[in-house]
Amino acid sequence: MNWLKERLESFDTKPACIEAGRTWSYRDFCAAVEAAKAALGSERLVPIQTGSIVEGLAQILAVADSQHIALPLPATAHASEREHMLQVAASSPLYDQLPHSGLVLFSSGTSGEPKGMLHDLSALLNRLARISPREDRTLQLLPIDHIGGLDAACRCLCAGSTLIVPDALSPEAAGRAIETHRVTILPASPTFLNLMLMQGVAERYDCSSLAIIAYGAEAMPQPLLHRLSQAFPQADLQQKFGTSETGAVRIQSSGRESLFFRIKDADTEWKVIDDQLWLKTPSRILGYLNAAADSLEADGWYRTGDLVEEGPAGSLRIIGRQSATINVGGQKVHPAEVEAVLQDLDGVDACRVYGEPDPIAGQRVACEIISASQQDLRSWKRAIRQHCRGKLAPWKIPSSVKLSNKLEINARMKQG
Length: 416
Hints:
alpha/beta, Rossmann fold, GMP Synthetase, Chain A, domain 3, 2 domains, 5-stranded mixed β-sheet, 4-stranded mixed β-sheet, 12 helices, 25 strands, 27% strand, globular
């Protein structure tokens, strides 16, 4: 990894990161990497647990030049969760397949126990070698134990840009950091961006410095994308895509308010089989530590589980996760399709569509509506039926409705 060391050292006194009131130069950051290298012991697995983004990044990059395996642990997890991750990662036959540095990441576990995944750390980092220098300031919201957060941070550093770490994971703190540090790039999930709109961040803080709003990690509703376009007219809205199993994949949005994109990554092959996207990249994981590798093909392909719609000129649009599909008496319902319709209903600030058990149909469509409106539940049910009639097939219209006045967000910036 000599190229990475030389790249970082070449930026010298430029600001690498601003966190907790301290500005780290690239010289400071490189010194932290060297100190972390010197502290590496004989144990191959290196747990990384720190509340500091910049110190955690230094420890991960210290591992890159060794035969160690980095295990960044989520700062927000309970002690028992971290202990379980340590037990899962303690040993694996997969480690014998890795002649150099590795990285273990855990999925968010939204559909079961979090999966431990073994990455070839060198393969992940080498994909960043072609990044050109940039004078940007990127807001770091996702944690570095998440593939999206780690990728965003490393891309920023490899470009010689400045990483801005807000003092809290909240729209208020994000707006304050954008205004104070003149942030130019905002990578965030649609849920977090929706929270920023709901809390009036664009009106209460000067966000005119934003040149790019990069969204990903979950499906973006079309109505929300339109609202973002209006709230941040100066910013280019760019969709990002990647998976925990492959890392980020370079894509190009078909338009500022389009959810279609084309894969423009020289290292990535793709195909669609039965509406599911398959990827083949040099940075695919070696395997799972605690789960079957059914989605990993022997020839290098990865079945993502993402359902897509194919558009013109090889473009794609993410419909949703195959695992989230609701089966209503044999009829398939994609939650994102229903959510997009509900988002157009007056008074809906956000919504979540999911399946509930049904004794006759197997499952029924349910939804949670987040709204500041004072309408009662009966009025909402009537409004939803009227609004969806003619826009959705009868079996896709939610038959169960919950109300909430608060949009919850988890540590991965997704609706929780």
